[in-house]
Structures are given as C-alpha cells and as structure tokens.
Amino acid sequence: QVQLQESGPGLVKPSQTLSLTCAVSGDSISSTGYYWSWIRQHPGKGLEWIGYIYHSGSTYYNPSLKSRITMSVDTSKNQFSLKLTSVTAADAAVYYCARLKSGGSSCLDYWGQGTLVTVSS
Amino acid sequence: DIQMTQSPSSLSASVGDRVTITCRASQNIRNYLNWYQQKPGKAPNLLIYAVSSLQSGVPSRFSGSGSGTDFTLTISGLQPEDFATYYCQQSYSALGTFGQGTKVEIK
C-alpha cells in the first residue's frame, strides 16, 4: 500500500519560505510513470495544483506560482520537497502531496493526509 | 487554462437516492476526466478516472459517463458514507484543473 506523509512547519512568517517534505512508502519514488505532486486547499475552498516533479528532476509548476516555487526529489530517502518563497496570508492552506499516475487520463491515485500551514507573524 | 464547472454546488439527498453531479469543461478534454471524493478533514480520494473507470476498491454504485465537454458522476443508491464533497478534474492539460466541488448533504 502506497503511503505519503507530509511534514514541515505549521506556522510560517510572512515573507519567509515555506518548506515541506513528503515521505513516500510502499513505492519507489523512482518508479516509471509516476510524478510526485503538491496540491493545496485554502480553508473551505477548492483544490489548487501547485506542481509536480519526476524522479529525474523534471518539473511542472503552476504558472501563477512558478516564480516562487522550487520542487526537488531525494531518491535516496524516497521523498520529495516543496519550497515556496515570499509567503503571504494567501498561501495559508492545507498542503497535500500526492502521486500522479501518468498515462491515459493521468490521475492522483494516492494522497497524503495533508498538513495545515498558517502564515502569521 | 481549462475551466471546470460543476453543478450543482450543493445538493440535499436521502439515503437510497440516485444522485447525479455534472461537470462541464471549457473546451474539449476528450476522456481525460477524473472524479474525487473528499470528506471533512480528509484528503481527496480518487473514485473514477478516464471518465468511467472505477478505481480499485470503490463501490460499484459510483459510475461516470460523458465525453468531450460534458461529464456526469452518478451515485446509485446513496449510502451514509457517501455524504461528502465531490470534485471533477481534467487531466487533458499539464495543469489538471479541478472543478469547484459539489457538496452532497443529508436531507
């Protein structure tokens, strides 16, 4: 059974950098055909895709966030990470990591439980 | 960007009812359409991918149909555990946008 677990600070100060890590178990992050994704959900709102990364390091970022995002993958630890710079109150949300299964209609077939990030001084 | 519009935004239904949720894409997305269920405080859970393929472990009362721009999620015989919010998501473009969600509540 594939499991994903987000970790990172729950509180970030405005203008600072949000850093989250997603640990993957039950599957190798180097598996062919899977991308590793970050999605966020503002309180009481819908889902917003932040971006995704392949084990090779290739990435796709949401254009609206692209200038502030960096994603990376650590195959030795079977985990991937998100950095979002210059955060504001608008970045407060629940952040999910998920596995994107590619091919045909690609879909997010496994998700982490989510981690709430608050932006406040 | 491809916009996904769900209707209704919310609905009230009783256990045993047949429920239909509609999702419309702003352009032709062929069969690149997925459905997710989200319960309060939990992560979304994949129900259906590629319009009508049931994810492993999902009850057969869930079904999907449609093509092009118009899609439907049907729950045949609503169960207490089905009260949740449902999202459609297109995977036609690199940025797989989600619909705004449909909340299914108990009548």
Question: Which tags fit this structure?
Answer:
heterodimer; A: 121 residues; mainly beta; 53% strand; globular; B: 107 residues; 6-stranded mixed β-sheet; 50% strand
Q: Can you offer a commentary on this structure?
A:
The complex is a heterodimer of chains A (121) and B (107). With 121 residues, chain A is mainly β. In chain A, 0% of the residues lie in helices and 53% in strands. In chain A, the strands form two sheets. In chain A, strands 2, 4, 5, 6, 9, 10 and 11 form a seven-stranded mixed β-sheet that branches. Chain A has a four-stranded antiparallel β-sheet with strand order 1-3-8-7, with no helix packed on it. In chain A, a hairpin with a 5-residue loop joins strand 4 and strand 5. The relative contact order of chain A is 0.32. The model of chain A has no long low-confidence stretch (mean pLDDT 96). Chain B contains no helices and ten strands. Chain B is globular, with a radius of gyration of 13 Å. Chain B has 107 residues and is mainly β. In chain B, 0% of the residues lie in helices and 50% in strands.
Chain-wise SSE layout:
The complex is a heterodimer of chains A (about 120) and B (about 110).
Chain A: E1 3-7, E2 11-12, E3 18-25, E4 34-41, E5 47-53, E6 59-61, E7 69-74, E8 79-84, E9 93-101, E10 107-111, E11 115-119
Chain B: E1 4-7, E2 10-13, E3 18-25, E4 33-38, E5 45-49, E6 53-54, E7 62-67, E8 70-76, E9 85-90, E10 102-106
Parallel strand pairs in B: 2-10
Antiparallel strand pairs in B: 1-3, 3-8, 4-5, 4-9, 5-6, 7-8, 9-10
Let me know the largest β-sheet of chain B.
6 strands, mixed
Uncertain runs of chain B with pLDDT below 50, 5 residues or more? none
The number of helical runs of chain A is: 0
The secondary-structure element order of chain B is EEEEEEEEEE
Major sheet of chain B: order of its strands? 2-10-9-4-5-6
So what's the overall shape of chain B? Answer: globular
Distance between the termini of chain B: 36 Å
